Amino acid sequence: MTGRPPTVAIIGGSGVYESGLFEGKKVHRVSTPFGAPSSPIEEGEMDGVRVLFLARHGKGHVTPAHRVNYRANIDALKSLGTDLIVTINSVGSLKEEIPPGQFVIPNQFVDWTKRRESTFYDGGRTYHVSTADPVCPRLEKAALVLAQRRGLNVASGKTYVCVEGPRFSTRAESRLYRTFADIIGMTLVPECPLARERELCYLPICMVTDYDVWADHPVEAVEVVRVLTDNVRRVRDWLKALVPELARAPGSCACPSALEHAGL
User: What's the CA gap between 184 and 74, in Å, rounded?
Assistant: First the structure.
């Protein structure tokens, strides 16, 4: 990063289509070599920190997870000077101890997607970035410290399995995923590794909306919406305190130099 204060980007997921976090905003309509991002990008300020907001699915959830232009989203945020990305993700739980309504910050993922553009480097120059630890450890630590200080129950050290969607899992699939993951969703990949390729710090905040179908009852949209509505209010309150903390988080990380030794 440079000597300027870092710019924080928020990618809003299901239920978070407008930031509702800042006033006096301006709007960027960005073009990228990969096409248009999911939505215009709002800009504002929170406690002296420059903040950008992008609706991953577009306003009103018009783009399903498997059709999101993740490359355009990340590239557009990078072009506007983003240093850190905080994302909101709705997920299902694969474990009894992670109930609906719980917040989770996963630090590992398993990619179960099938048809997504997962790299910026399709030719000309090849980079093999490390995703051994895909989530920025500096941001993860700062978020967990703040959560503890505010009395928020946030699970950490969990694994997210990312599936293609848009359908929900079969019971057999859900039982399989339980053997190696804790939560399940459709948006962390390729968003997270693309952020690493653009040398951006990345922190996912996951909102558990339901138990996946291993729990012997089908996932119903009405249940998801009910829990989601309550979680959106709470996550917005948390973000208002979290964003300035992340922008000023102490220490360093390897994210801004991810390409340094990754090229061939």
Answer: 22
